[in-house]
Design brief:
The protein is an alpha/beta fold. Helix content is about 25%, strand content about 25%.
């Protein structure tokens, strides 16, 4: 059994993505790691950063982005597919540039892949998610933050990244362009794995968080709209961290040095009152968050879109490994 890791990125260095830590977090369990690097800015050091890992497992490929051909976030899916298509493993482990796996989960992941390698009904593996927010000691579990997602798939040419690359679908006879199409697409049949993805995409200095927001808005809405929507805004306004749950577990060891660089606490709001520049969620969003917390202990998100068919759960005896909740 072979496992390939794969990812895509562009300007990961200058936008404060822990891309090196992401790759290193699963490098021990993969036979190769494909990194598709977009046309980065001249002052970005993403290539040098990844090359510094100095592993024969890592294979770099380079591509140019075309937001006109792939609008509305679909360039993310297109770039993901480019990396996926270069993989040779039986299982393909996808990590986005801000996602890291704790070392305590690696054995579980490999064992699950081995258990299911001959079960062709299973097309992918489903992971829990921890969305860190603002700093490394708070996380989001309010309404709208996805609690699970597919991150390992079979090496099947009909399985493609979908929409803006959050997930995957089976798309027979795919034209390679329309990543948001729904007709003729099929949700993957997945099995749960006792492991979590640690998502650090919302943890960076507020001024860099704002630059990342502009970059994402450009990918999804176009440059003109992105610049207009963010004009005169230089610093991202985080939600009041005093309203969020506290993370009481350990981070992946590979993140320790990265976390030591945390130096923007004076720019965060640790109270329960929002800052003047913070855009509050809608009343509906706040009501649903309260209902999910009181009645479902944040384990269920009302109306959440689940882009998968869960047909095989995990052994309940091992669920204690997911101990990140407050």
């Amino acid at each position: 059994m072979r496992i390939s890791g794969f990812t895509f990125c562009k300007n990961a260095d200058k936008l404060y993505y822990p891309i090196k830590q992401s790759i290193l977090s699963i490098l021990p369990i993969v036979d190769e790691f494909i990194v598709n690097i977009g046309d980065c800015d001249d002052d970005d050091k993403t290539v040098e950063l990844i090359q510094s890992i100095n592993s024969p497992k890592i294979k770099l490929i380079f591509s140019e982005w075309n937001l006109e051909k792939y609008p509305n976030g679909t360039e993310n899916a297109h770039q993901t597919d480019i990396a996926k298509n270069a993989c040779s493993g039986d299982w393909l482990f996808y990590l986005q540039a801000d996602e890291v796996v704790h070392e305590k989960y690696l054995d579980n992941i490999v064992k699950r892949c081995e258990e299911l390698i001959e079960n062709k009904d299973i097309e992918g593996l489903l992971f829990d998610y921890v969305h860190f927010y603002g700093d490394y000691w708070h996380y989001q579990n309010s309404h709208g933050w996805y609690k699970k997602e597919i991150r390992i798939i079979r090496n099947d040419p009909d399985i493609h990244s979908w929409e803006s690359a959050q997930s995957f679908r089976r798309i027979p006879n795919f034209d390679g362009v329309h990543y948001r199409q729904q007709e003729g697409t099929f949700k993957l049949k997945v099995a749960k794995v006792n492991a979590a993805i640690y998502h650090y995409g919302w943890v960076r200095p507020p001024e860099l968080m704002q630059k990342k927001k502009i970059a994402l808005d450009t990918i999804h809405k176009g440059e003109n709209i992105a610049l207009d929507n963010n004009k005169n805004v230089e610093i991202f306004a985080y939600a009041p961290l005093g309203t969020l749950p506290v993370f009481k577990d350990t981070h992946p060891a590979i993140m320790n040095d990265w976390i030591k660089n945390f130096n923007w606490q004076d720019k965060l709001n640790y109270s329960k009152k929002p800052s003047p520049n913070y855009k509050k969620p809608s009343t509906r969003h706040r009501v649903l968050t309260k209902i999910e917390k009181i009645f479902f202990k944040n384990k269920i998100s009302i109306g959440e879109f689940k882009n998968y068919k869960l047909i095989l759960h995990t052994d309940k005896k091992n669920k204690k490994v997911n101990s990140y909740n407050s």
